[in-house]
Specification:
single chain; 691 residues; mainly alpha; two-stranded antiparallel sheet; two-stranded antiparallel ribbon; 26 helices; 6 strands
């Protein structure tokens, strides 16, 4: 059965055909084209994704496809409404840029890796995310969720000859299967109430579910989807998986895959849970929002604190993803809290902030991971301590990476500023919350948010400054050149989007407003000509400050600062020397700040969190005379308190239980038969006592 919006149905099938073709070409054309044919269908499919999603969003309609309605164990239903279309748009935009980037990036693996296998899983991975977001029944959703997890697992361990990659993949697989079990449990609980596996039945019956049932479903879904999203303390797979995976895969995983968890939570809370519907008393769900805000605040702070001390660029970006997911959770939590107290307008603003940041993170994080991949592509290292001077050797990569850095740092004229600005407006408006405890909790979260923004800026000043602006720290830097044009084109697409959404935020905000169908009293606009307007006749005013005003203030302050410095300093003598030499001649790379030393003040301030230990290694000139030193090496190591105090005890107890279980496996058949007999007797006793 095919319902509304029939002219978009062919696009749905063209998307599937394109990615299936890309997967099959990868296996059939394994000896031709150096990997490029694998990504041509992917690029075409990504374009179809963008057209399909925009078609749904702009027309305010939906696509509903139902196949074999009488067969429970088939892929029954697919639904693409505004919310699904928004996430499909993200999949299309990021997949397009990453696929173009991959046309040349794949050359790094052609000589010693099975590239056709990579092409197969790459296409299957993107297709599984599209079908996951489009699924409208439990069976389809779980199948494509598992397909997404398995394909991404094989992409993470693509460099399987490396032991660390295998370890990272196993950690990822364990965590994602744990999350899948909890997600399935939450959906089956809903199914037990409706007698159907269709998501449509959940929507129609959401008002009839008891509060207790909704709370149980929410907790299961929050932990299950939170594992995939990477919230603290369920984030442990992220900093392991990203450094091990190829950079184009890291871009897809960080920019899109972890956002599918946000999609699932939105469906559970607003769609199946009925939060926000007129028939539901939303005050009962205030604690849901508070849990979101608290978890998001902790995740954002912990993520950025680990990110700032990292020397590996990809690992730092992985921790940064945890921080940004935390910010998204804060926005969603504020939206639920406002909604629970019937502050409809403020709830819409907070949700808009969360979704705009989700959009922004998808764009600038894919750009940063592709930039990191470009660095590794030429230098074969992601260690900032071995880089430096890349701005002269890779000028276009440096420019695009700088755009990503400015965007993620939340500076004006770039997209990150808009979503963080909206988030700050939501925090400022929290004084409207009548519950004192919740209002104080939100106040603490706002402090965590402010701290996060400050450390983020320090993190990316370090990453860009050490990697690109300092003097080269290894001889290989003098021999490298710019990456191929297709890699630059892939980065350029998302870099342009970062600037466009920063200068013209109405594009993204109007898109989100249409996709999520925000219904405000008196039809007041959320966004108009760069301003956040207040609801007429109420006290829900958040701000009258517009983006043009922010721009004028920023430029005025900059001009005044320059004028003041020139006026006070007057005319001075100028001495021309090399960049980063601070006026000294013959400055070498050993006299510069390192990535470790640049983050040392933060490590010192939060030493109770990092618990650093100092190891000093003295290297003598000769083994017979230990008193005359040739050099001294200082190593700083930090403890991961979450691994040590949460996962460490769990792993130790599991290993102890495993040893106990091994004693049962004696290899003696008679003992096994005895165990079976004991179990049967116990079951008979149970049935007799509890008929």
């Amino acid at each position: 059965m095919i319902s509304m919006f029939e002219h978009s149905i062919p696009l749905f099938w063209m998307v599937i055909i394109s990615f299936v073709s890309g997967a099959l070409f990868s296996l059939l054309l394994r000896k031709h084209g150096g990997g490029k044919p694998f990504f041509i269908p992917t690029i075409i499919g990504s374009i179809f994704l963008i057209i399909l999603s925009l078609n749904v969003i702009m027309n305010g309609s939906s696509i509903h496809i139902e196949l074999a309605p009488n067969n429970v164990f088939s892929f029954n239903e697919f639904l693409i409404d505004g919310i699904a279309a928004f996430f499909i748009l993200l999949i299309g935009l990021v997949s397009l840029s990453v696929s173009i980037y991959s046309l040349s990036y794949i050359k790094e693996y052609i000589e010693n890796r099975h590239v056709p296998v990579f092409g197969f899983f790459f296409n299957a991975f993107i297709l599984s995310m599209f079908l996951l977001v489009s699924s409208n029944d439990i069976f389809s959703f779980i199948v494509f969720w598992e397909l997404m997890s398995l394909t991404s697992f094989f992409l993470v361990i693509y460099n399987h000859k490396n032991d660390s990659s295998l370890k990272s993949g196993i950690i990822y697989l364990i965590m994602t299967n744990l999350g899948t079990a909890l997600i399935l449990a939450s959906l089956l609980l809903l199914s037990s109430q409706t007698g159907s596996t269709s998501f449509e039945s959940f929507r129609l019956s959401s008002d009839t579910f008891s509060v207790t049932m909704k709370n149980i479903v929410f907790i299961l879904a929050f932990i299950g989807f939170g594992t995939k999203a990477g919230i603290v303390p369920l984030h442990m797979w992220l900093p392991y998986a990203h450094p091990s995976a190829p950079s184009n895969v890291s871009a897809l995983m960080s920019a899109i895959m972890i956002k599918t968890a946000i999609y699932g939570l939105i469906r559970i809370i607003y769609d199946f849970g009925g939060v926000g519907s007129g028939a539901t008393d939303n005050s009962e769900f205030a604690w849901w929002g508070l849990l979101f805000v608290t978890t998001g605040a902790i995740s954002s702070v912990v993520g950025v604190l680990y990110s700032v001390i990292e020397k590996d660029i990809k690992r730092a970006l992985a921790y940064s993803s945890i921080e940004n997911i935390g910010i998204i959770f804060i926005g969603m939590g504020l939206s639920i809290v406002f909604l629970s107290f019937n502050l409809i307008y403020l709830s819409a603003i907070a949700m808009l902030a969360a979704m705009y940041h989700l959009l922004n993170h998808s764009i600038f994080k894919s750009l940063l991971f592709m930039g990191a991949g470009a660095i590794i592509f030429r230098t074969q290292t992601a260690n900032m301590e071995k880089l430096g001077g890349l701005v002269k050797r890779m000028p276009w990569t440096s420019l695009f990476f700088l755009v990503g850095v400015l965007s993620i740092s939340g500076l004006p004229f770039f997209n990150g500023f808009i979503s963080e600005y909206l988030m700050m407006l939501s925090f400022i408006s929290s004084y409207r919350i009548p519950d004192v405890v919740i209002a104080i909790s939100v106040g603490f979260a706002s402090a965590a948010f402010a701290l996060t923004l400050g450390i983020v800026l320090a993190t990316f000043v370090k990453i860009f400054g050490i990697s690109f602006l300092s003097k080269p720290r290894s001889d290989i830097i003098y021999k490298i050149k710019e990456v191929p044009r297709t890699m630059l084109a892939g980065m350029g697409i998302v870099a342009i989007m970062c600037i466009t959404l920063g200068l013209i935020p109405a594009i993204g905000i109007d898109m989100i407003t249409l996709a999520f169908n925000f219904q405000l009293p008196l039809n007041q606009p959320i966004f108009s000509f760069g301003s956040i307007w207040s609801e007429s006749g109420t006290n829900n005013t958040v701000s009258g400050l517009s983006l043009p005003v922010v721009s004028v203030i920023f430029v005025s302050i900059l001009a005044a600062t320059i004028g003041f410095l020139y006026g006070v300093g007057g005319r001075t003598k100028h001495r021309i020397t090399e960049t980063w030499s601070c006026g000294f001649v013959n400055l070498n790379e050993r006299m510069q700040y390192t990535a470790t030393s640049l983050s040392q003040p933060i490590l010192h301030v939060f030493r109770n969190f990092y618990k650093p230990s100092l190891v000093i290694e003295h290297i003598p000139y000769h083994s017979s005379n230990p008193y005359i030193k040739k050099s001294v090496k200082i190593h700083v190591s930090n403890k991961n308190i979450i691994e040590d105090f949460i996962y460490g005890p769990i792993i130790r107890n599991v290993l102890k239980a495993n040893k106990i279980m091994k004693k049962i496996q004696t290899g003696k058949v008679n003992l096994y038969l005895l165990n079976v007999l004991v179990v049967i007797i116990l079951l008979l006793v149970y049935v007799r006592l509890f008929p």
